[in-house]
Specification:
- The complex is a heterodimer.
- Chain A is mainly alpha-helical.
- In chain A, α10 packs antiparallel against α13.
- Chain A has 14 helices and no strands.
- Chain B is mostly helical.
- Chain B folds into two domains: 41 residues; 234 residues, MetI-like (MetI-like fold, Orthogonal Bundle), CATH 1.10.3720.10.
- Helices cover 75% and strands 2% of the residues of chain B.
- In chain B, a hairpin with a 5-residue loop joins β1 and β2.
- In chain B, α2 packs across α12.
- The two termini of chain B are 47 Å apart.
- Classes of the chains: A mainly alpha, B mainly alpha.
């Protein structure tokens, strides 16, 4: 066999492995979406069916039998609130860390990425209960900001670092204050970084389960924390369960697809440049 | 500019920079640093069923040592950790090599590859409950179709941990692969060319050149996964809640249940501080390893 034939075979073999990996990665998710579109009697059919007439009846059923839309609204309030708080606190902090090279404030926020959530949840629970804040949006937004803040800081740090120091020095000579440099000069230069950090903060806040499990009540429960309610519908209601799962997964998956190019370096919080 | 004026500007600058990071610092101290210190204090307290608390010294930690559930939790946590990490590192490196050799990778393919780890873990749990159902699930149908015996999956005390390891591997292998792919792409192409000229086989090149050069990246991926795996919570809590029996009662699940189902906040604090120490210990150990394999 000459070299080019070998090359072609290696490429085909590689493509085969790629397709195989793709099938394994995608099948469960595809199965979830398909199940959500099956008529209710067919979802639990055994052997499982692949050909069926798709219907939206599970989605209709879901919104009728559960307060899905009010859970979704709660999720939006908590997610948007905590993302906004993360940006509000994180942008100036990342700028100051990048400028001064004093990194402990940024490292401190990483504790939330390493310690188990229950470590914070136990004292929060005791503290929030004392001031009657269990079940409030404020408690939920504050707790979820612990997730969003390190994401914003660590994604923006390299963006701020990449701005040449001479740009800032020139502005200083012109008499610009540090705060003014941040708002007028640095911010526009890191606009794309801010967009990426906002989207990733949104996704991780949306996906976060543990805090809302304890800190929310019937009125403020987020979609993720309400997942038990959908499972509680019982093993006979797989269609509605899969409809709920599909709808809950949709916002993070769409948003993640938008930023997939920056995803890995963003997710590793500075550990990897990818 | 005179010296005095320069110092004045510098002081002003320092003040402004402190003011910029102040909100984040105050927030972090209030929501992370202070609560952790409070947890340490809670770890020395005992809470009665009526909610009265009293100082008990190290009693919670003494209880830990003699608590059968704690040792079970530690074992389950480590078993799940080692099994999952080994599976996804091996598969992740393989997938990274496959992705690396696929010359063009359309954005849509990348988007599909990231979908498992960007979906909420809770949704992954809901999805796998249906697929792994012992009597009606698609997984057992596939096993039967292949002539293999069906499994009880999450309902089996023996298989529940391997099943969680499989679920986590499905979810996070693409993430490991993308990190390793980044490492592969940053390697200088000259090393491969030199090996090719020397007539080294593809496997030898991988074993002798690519793998050693990739090790720091692989260890980085291992650190990131260790932190998540040792705290594995969402999928277990949504599916088995530590069961069947206590077969998947990891330290994180156990600590949560002690705190918020039995409301023994003091003992839960001791459990969580112990788990936190384990996570930090693992990260430090991996970090030393990364130092040892760096080039």
């Amino acid at each position: 066999m000459d070299a080019s034939t070998t090359d072609r075979w290696i490429r085909r073999l590689n493509l085969l492995q790629l397709v195989l990996a793709g099938i394994i990665i995608m099948t469960p998710t595809v199965w979830m979406v398909l199940s959500s579109l099956k008529p209710s009697f067919e979802v639990t059919a055994y052997p499982p069916t692949l050909v069926f007439t798709p219907t939206l009846s599970n989605y209709v059923e879901l919104t009728k039998t559960t307060p899905f839309l009010s859970y979704a609204l709660n999720s939006l309030i908590v997610t948007i609130g905590s993302t906004a708080l993360g940006l509000l606190f994180g942008i100036p902090a990342a700028f100051a860390v990048s400028w001064t090279r004093i990194s402990w404030p940024a490292i401190l926020t990483l504790a939330a990425r390493m310690a188990p959530g229950t470590l914070f949840l136990l004292p929060w629970y005791v503290m929030f209960r004392q001031v009657g804040m269990i079940g409030s949006y404020t408690a939920l937004i504050l707790s979820h900001a612990v997730i969003t803040l390190p994401i914003v800081i660590w994604i923006l740090l390299p963006s701020f670092d990449a701005i040449p120091r001479s740009v800032f020095e020139a502005a200083q000579v012109d008499g610009c204050s540090v705060t003014r440099i941040l708002w007028r000069i640095a911010l526009p230069l890191v606009a794309s970084g801010i967009a990426v950090s906002a989207i990733l903060a949104f996704v991780f806040s949306w996906n976060y389960f543990l805090f809302a499990l304890v800190l929310s009540n019937g009125d403020t429960k987020t979609l993720i924390a309400a997942a038990f309610n959908f499972i509680g519908e019982g093993s006979t209601q797989w269609g509605a369960l899969m409809a709920a799962a599909t709808l809950i997964a949709l916002p993070p998956l769409v948003l993640a697809a938008l930023v997939q190019r920056w995803l890995v370096s963003g997710l590793t919080l500075g550990a990897v440049k990818g | 500019m005179s010296d005095a004026a320069a110092t004045l500007t510098q002081d002003r600058q320092r003040l402004e920079l402190s003011a910029l990071s102040a909100p984040a610092v105050i927030f972090t101290v209030a929501m992370i640093a202070f609560p952790v210190i409070y947890t340490v204090w809670l770890g020395f307290q005992s809470f009665s069923s009526t909610g009265k608390q009293s100082f008990v010294g190290l009693a919670n930690y003494a209880k830990l040592v003699s608590d059968h559930e704690f040792w079970n939790g530690l074992w389950v946590t480590i078993a799940l950790y080692v099994l999952s990490l080994a599976l996804q590192l091996v598969l992740g490196v393989w997938l990274a090599l496959v992705l690396f050799h696929a010359k063009r990778l359309p954005g849509i393919v990348r988007s599909l590859f990231i979908s498992p780890f960007m979906m909420p873990p809770v949704v992954a749990g809901m999805m796998w409950i249906v697929i792994l159902d012992p009597s009606l699930g698609a997984a057992n149908y596939i096993l039967q179709f292949l002539g293999l015996p069906p499994s009880e999956w999450l309902a089996s005390p023996t298989w529940v941990i391997p099943t969680f390891a499989l679920i986590d591997t499905w979810q996070w292998t693409p993430y490991v692969a993308l990190i390793v792919l980044g490492g592969l792409q940053s390697l200088p192409p000259s090393v491969y060319e030199a090996a090719q000229i020397d007539g080294a086989s593809a496997f030898k090149t991988f074993q002798r050149i690519t793998l050693p050069l990739l090790l720091p990246t692989i260890v980085t991926a291992a650190i990131l996964r260790s932190v998540d795996l040792l705290r594995f919570f969402d999928i277990i809590y949504i599916t088995t809640q530590g069961g069947p029996g206590n077969a998947s009662n990891t330290l994180n699940i156990y600590g949560f249940r002690v705190g918020f189902e039995f409301f023994n906040i003091g003992y839960a604090s001791a459990l969580m501080l112990t788990l936190t120490a384990i996570v930090f210990g693992a990260v430090l150990a991996c970090n030393r390893l990364r130092g040892a394999v760096a080039w």
